[in-house]
Amino acid sequence: MGLLSFSLIGGVIGGAATVAAAPLVLGAVGFTAAGIAASSYAAGMMSAAAGANGGAIAAGSTVAVLQSFGAAGLGATLTTAIAGVGASVGAGIAAVAAVFI
Questions:
Q1: H-assigned helices in 1-101
Q2: Full-model pTM
Q3: Sign of torsion, CA 28 31 35 38?
């Protein structure tokens, strides 16, 4: 297989893997559809953000945005962007690997 074949396969795998992993990672750190999970990494982020902001979570803050994604999903635009990044990284890794195979 040539460099182009490796890059294409790596891109497809990378894109699919990142799209599948993104919601799982959000849930694993505590940003769930039911809200922020108790005693999770997300709960720690929320506590720190609230402490720094006088007890409130600012709209548009990292915690607020991640919770929105955890509750409502990523949406088509962000899913497409994540797939593009994953495909690029996968293709790059595969191209480097092809040089050594």
A1: 3-29, 41-52, 62-72, 75-100
A2: 0.76
A3: positive
